[in-house]
Design a protein that fits this description.
Number of helices: 7
Distance between the termini: 31 Å
Oligomer: single chain
Shape: globular
CATH superfamily: NAD(P)-binding Rossmann-like Domain
CATH class: Alpha Beta
Structural class: alpha/beta
Order of helices and strands: EHEHEHEHEHEHHE
Strand content: 15-25%
Number of domains: 1
Length: about 250
């Protein structure tokens, strides 16, 4: 399906590692222009340089998705340089799991700020450009946790459920503008996501789980490419996938 990816301008948040980095690499090989947003400037600058050296088109813009002005700058920079934005991938996320009784309020706040507000800011930044052109595709990364809740995952699951709800509302609202929307909900995929867990015992348990079942990050990249690569009249609204060995 690379025919509908070639030449597209694709903005990706959380592009410095894991799922976002894998998506950037995969889409670049299919001829997309990738605009990379993340807080770690040195990482995305190195990735952009690597992709350019390999014959691709890439741009790094340091971005903290908890600040709406920075997300707007990310998207506006893409539009200023390349003339448009075709796809917005709201991928940045945190997963600081812990039982509610431990009252990790700072973790809760960070999770809400990145996982919900970060997605909303991405939508807010991209939507005006896409409405004006009556064309575009917004991809929001949720999680299996947006479908199933386990002990210790209440806040994280709530944020990922919110991403699904926001995405479905968005899908219905953008019909007059010919904009496509996709929710992608991965299970355990190799990334730095477990590193955001601040409780030592939970961190240890989740790392053991990921070591046992996690699949490579390019699994998400292929799912993204599948959704984008469909003909424009085909709108892949939701993809839910897990490692074959993952039970929940």
């Amino acid at each position: 399906m690379s025919e509908n990816i070639q030449g597209k301008v694709i903005v990706i948040t959380g592009a410095s590692s894991g799922l976002g980095e894998a998506a950037a690499r995969h889409l670049s090989t299919k001829g997309a222009t990738v605009v990379l947003g993340a807080r770690r400037a040195e990482r995305i600058e190195a990735l952009a340089a690597e992709l350019i050296a390999g014959g691709g088109k890439a741009l790094a813009v340091t971005t903290d998705v908890t600040h709406s002005d920075q997300v707007k700058r990310l998207v506006d920079t893409a539009v200023e340089k390349y003339g448009r934005i075709d796809v917005m991938i709201n991928n940045a996320g945190l997963m600081p799991l812990s039982p509610l009784e431990r009252l990790k309020i700072e973790d809760w706040d960070r999770t809400i700020d990145v996982n919900i507000k970060g997605v909303l800011y991405g939508i807010a930044a991209a939507l005006p450009h896409m409405k004006r052109r009556k064309s575009g595709h917004i991809i929001n990364v949720s999680s299996v946790a947006g479908h199933k809740v386990r002990p210790g995952s209440s806040v994280y699951a709530a944020t990922k459920t919110a991403v699904r709800v926001l995405s479905e509302g968005l899908r219905q609202e953008v019909k007059p503008y010919n904009i496509r929307t996709t929710i992608i909900s991965p299970g355990a995929v190799s990334s730095e996501l477990p590193d955001s867990i601040t409780e030592p015992d939970v961190n240890t348990d989740i790392h053991k789980f990921y070591d046992a079942v996690a699949i490579p990050a390019d699994s998400l990249a292929r799912a993204v490419a599948f959704a984008i690569g469909q003909p424009e009249e085909v709108d892949i609204n939701e993809i839910l996938y897990r490692p074959t060995r993952q039970e929940l």
